[in-house]
Every structure is written in C-alpha cells, then in structure tokens.
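In the design runs reported in the main text, the only information available to the sequence generator was the tokenized backbone. The following block is the verbatim input for one such run; it is reproduced so that readers can re-run the procedure and compare outputs position by position.
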C-alpha cells in the first residue's frame, strides 16, 4: 500500500504542485482508477509507469480535467493545484489547461502555420497586446522547445510539414507558449525515432527548471533517464511512488519488483 508519510517526510509542503487525494475514475461501470493519493512536486519530472491499461493515462487526464471531455468518465476525489481544487465549479477547464498543458502520444499540430500553432494559445488567452509581443512569445516558446533554429526561416509554412520529431517539439512549444505551471506528457516519444527521442528527453530535462513535468512512459529506461520521481500503477492502483532511483533499485512492493524485472507487463 502506498504510504503517505514517505512523501510528506521527504519534501516540504511548498514543493508540492499537485496534490491528489482519494481519486477514483469510473468509465461507466468500470472502476479504472482506485483511490489514488499522490503529491507531485514542482520543478521535478515525475514518471508514471506500469502495464498497459493500468490507469496511467486516466490519471494524467484527471490532472488537467481532460476526462471532462469523455462523457462516460466520472472522477471522484480531490486534486489541488497550489492548494486550489481544480474541480471546483468556478474553475474554467480551458483556463486550467493553459496552466496545465498537455502533449500527446502522436504529434498533433493544427493544420496551420508553424507560427500560428504556437500563437494559438497566447491569442485565445490574450497574452499579448500587439504583434511584436506575440512574435516574442512565439520565438521564446520555440527556443524553449529547442526548435527555433530549425524553423525560424519558415514560420509561415505548415506545422504538418515538419518531421515527426519536429512536430512533437512544435506541440511542446505550443504547450509552453501559454506559460504553463505543469506540463503533462502522454508517451511523448512513442512515435519518434531514437534521435528525436533523445532531443525530446533533453528538452524535458531543461523544462523541469521552469515547471513540473509529468510523463507517462512505457519505457523504463526513459523513466530512469528523465525522471526524479516515479509512480508505479497496477490494475488501477498507485502501488508505489518514490525517488526514481529507489523504485528501480530497491522497490518496496513485490508488484513493482515484478514489473521492473519484466515479470509482469
Ligand atoms: N475512454 C474510455 N472509455 C472506456 N474505458 C476506458 C477509456 N479510457 C480508458 N479506459 C479503460 O480504463 C483502463 C485504464 O486505461 P488507461 O488508458 O488509463 O491505461 P494506461 O495505463 O494509460 O494504458 P496504456 O499504457 O495502454 O496507454 C483500461 O481498462 C481502459 O480500457
């Protein structure tokens, strides 16, 4: 069973960005996520690992209310961002998703120019007063996503014309452009080749200096490379959460041990 005290002893309260308590998710009758408690830290990469169908993506989607868009999904429990309940009736999910950005498995740029892909969020959230400010935001986001040098001379070309790895970095730039506090990534490298994967992993490490990053990954090597904290999910339960090094070298739960040694999965 997950031991709350371990987390609370390890960090000071101010480091906690997202606090989840008693989170349950049902899809119709299916109980997909069972009583999840976890504290996700600021300026830290947290990896969610576990066998297929164990609820990693379901929990990730709870953190920015993406499950609201799935009619049969029902979420119970509490998730707070900086102590504020994100499921409070007064919270606008669109505003919330600007603060808690998301990058998906398959790069999904809009059918728009590279510039407009990145400018989209800042425009709808009114983050710039004029074109010069918007240009600045777009450049900063593309630099932040390590893509600027590759695209600066073709900002008006379609985002869909970039390579897969570039498209994924464009999607990261799009998420970063609204100055999020948390970035959620659902298997962001699964459609990428090893070189593009390496670039995105390097980027994740840089992004952690600015905000909290949560990444769902099927690759234990990737979790070990990019994350400082790891959460292991199994059959809808958060079985174990701790320092990535500890999870991989001295797991406390036999199910975690079985998964990392390749016996379940
Ligand atoms: N939109 C949905 N409608 C119905 N059931 C769903 C839906 N999304 C997920 N589920 C179910 O909830 C459970 C958890 O799924 P989830 O996608 O969160 O797992 P996961 O750990 O991310 O899996 P994977 O690693 O394969 O992506 C699974 O049994 C899945 O079939």
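Verbatim output:
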């Amino acid at each position: 069973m997950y031991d709350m005290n371990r987390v609370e002893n390890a960090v000071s309260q101010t480091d906690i960005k997202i606090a989840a308590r008693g989170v349950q998710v049902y899809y119709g009758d299916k109980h997909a996520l069972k009583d999840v408690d976890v504290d996700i830290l600021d300026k830290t990469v947290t990896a969610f690992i576990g066998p297929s169908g164990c609820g990693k993506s379901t929990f990730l989607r709870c953190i920015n209310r993406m499950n609201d868009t799935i009619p049969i999904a029902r979420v119970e429990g509490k998730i707070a961002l900086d102590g504020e309940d994100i499921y409070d009736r007064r919270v606008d999910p669109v505003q919330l998703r600007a603060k808690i950005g998301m990058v998906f498995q398959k790069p999904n740029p809009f059918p728009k120019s590279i510039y407009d892909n990145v400018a989209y969020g800042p425009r709808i959230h009114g983050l710039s007063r004029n074109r010069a400010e918007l240009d600045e935001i777009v450049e900063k986001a593309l630099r932040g996503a390590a893509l600027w040098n590759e695209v600066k001379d073709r900002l008006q070309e379609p985002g869909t014309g970039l390579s897969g790895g570039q498209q994924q970095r464009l999607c990261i730039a799009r998420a970063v452009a609204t100055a999020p506090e948390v970035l959620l990534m659902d298997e962001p490298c699964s459609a990428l080749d090893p070189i593009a994967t390496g670039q995105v992993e390097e980027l994740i490490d840089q992004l952690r200096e600015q905000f909290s990053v949560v990444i769902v990954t099927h690759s234990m090597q990737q979790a070990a490379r990019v994350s400082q904290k790891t959460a292991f999910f199994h059959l809808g339960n958060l079985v174990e959460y701790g320092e990535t090094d500890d999870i991989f070298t001295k797991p406390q739960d036999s199910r975690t041990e079985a998964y990392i040694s390749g016996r379940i999965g």
